[in-house]
Design brief:
The protein has about 180 residues and is mainly α. It has six helices and no strands. The longest helix is centred in the C-terminal third of the chain and has 29 residues. It comes from Gluconacetobacter asukensis.
């Protein structure tokens, strides 16, 4: 190695050595702890998403009406995306989403698994109407008075999807009472 090569190597390595000894920037401070209201919202929203996803997945094999199957597929897609977004917010706060259904939800899911065809379509649709009716005020309250900005934005953004799902379920419920001819 010539003197010139060593000099070039030294000029390349010197800035790297300086970077290695430079103090690292302080890590970003953790977000403030969630208020009890925000933590309760996260738990209820996560459970709602999980329950809707679980019931909607049943429709692939248990529903008769293709519109119910399509609606259920949209619910799985939309609520999975919602849950992923909620999980990201919870993770930033060091909070873990619940990963189980409550006892009442387990019983309803078990009952729904036993149904097929028109009975499934009717009960699934009624369940989605009730579930989305229950979710709407939860999300409205968080959007209006939540403490965490990311949760408020999430709740605000989700209100349109909740209303859309509720409208679709109501439409299916109205049309589900008419008998269709067998093909």
């Amino acid at each position: 190695m010539t003197k010139h090569d060593r000099w070039m190597l030294f000029t390349v390595l010197l800035p790297l050595a300086a970077c290695a000894t430079a103090p690292k920037p302080a890590p970003a401070p953790p977000p403030p702890a969630l208020t009890e209201t925000d933590a309760t919202f996260i738990e209820k929203a996560a459970r709602s998403n999980d329950f809707i996803i679980a019931t909607a997945k049943l429709a692939a094999t248990q529903a008769r009406n293709p519109h119910v199957k399509d609606f259920a597929a949209r619910l799985v897609s939309d609520h999975t995306a919602s849950q992923d977004r909620l999980k990201a917010i919870a993770d930033r706060h060091g909070t873990t989403l619940p990963d189980d259904l409550n006892t009442d939800e387990e019983h309803v899911l078990h009952s729904l698994k036993a149904e097929k065809g028109r009975a499934f379509d009717r009960d699934f649709t009624a369940l989605q109407i009730a579930g989305h009716n229950d979710a709407a005020p939860l999300f409205q309250a968080e959007a209006a008075s939540g403490s965490d900005p990311a949760l408020k934005t999430y709740a605000t953004d989700m209100q349109a999807a909740i209303q859309s799902h509720l409208d679709m379920a109501r439409t299916l419920g109205q049309h589900g009472h008419h008998r269709r001819p067998h093909h």
